[in-house]
Amino acid sequence: MSSSDERNDRKKGFRHRAETPGKPRPQRVSAGDAKDWLWGVHAVEAALANPARPAPRRLLATEDRARTLSRRFPGTRIETVEAHEIGRQLPQGAVHQGLALKIDPPEALSIDDIGAPADGVLVMLDQLTDPQNVGAIFRSAAAFGARGMILQDRHAPALSGALAKAAVGAVDRLPHAIVVNLSRALEQLSELGWRVVGLDGAATVDLDAALDGGPTVLVMGSEGEGLRRLVSEHCDVLARIPMPGGFESLNVSNAAAIALYEAARKRR
Length: 268
Hints:
Structural class: alpha/beta
CATH class of the largest domain: Alpha Beta
CATH architecture of the largest domain: 3-Layer(aba) Sandwich
Distance between the termini: 74 Å
Strand order of the largest sheet: 7-6-5-10-8-11-9
CATH topology of the largest domain: Alpha/beta knot
CATH superfamily of the largest domain: SPOUT methyltransferase, trefoil knot domain
Helix content: 25-40%
Largest sheet: 7 strands, parallel
Shape: elongated
Number of helices: 11
Strand content: 15-25%
Number of strands: 11
């Protein structure tokens, strides 16, 4: 750039940062580029311990974390790097705790595999798109003994990144199915003996009355729109969580945790 160009740019309010010859500026990847990465101790260790996962593509760890992983997972190839090098592979703000793993997702089950025989509780998510919410629901489902999760192949976040971090390892401890058509999946589950309870704040039946302790699919709608019409029509009953405090609604992950607790209590 000529000196006259620089003077013109300064008049327009532009600034030019001096470049260091031979030293490229560090680039941070976008969230989309990091879709195959997991980070954080719980998410990474659970993935390494999951036999349904393929072999890791890359495993980055700080020196202390590498020593711990070598003891837990002998023979695993680990790249020992500085913490800032790990951060450069991940989206802005990723709290990696000195660990990052690039790996393909665990194998998804079919509806027949996850639903037969009919017993326990399944959670179906109808177009939930927020990774933090989906990860938190995975965590609650594992904590309350759910049998598995059912997700749609579209309009759902990847089971990695921020989702896996929020799930603190539950993505690799809880089976999941990914389906094209949720309504058709609910038909299959009904044929297998499952009862479908959809969560809807406008329902007239309280959740406690809707649950009977039998094989139950809990269906949670999206953060903004709730259950879609066709999915709602395939539910045996729509139920609400009564809120005597008068507040209008709960975050979907909080509602899922309450519903899973109630379902577990009914089963006991």
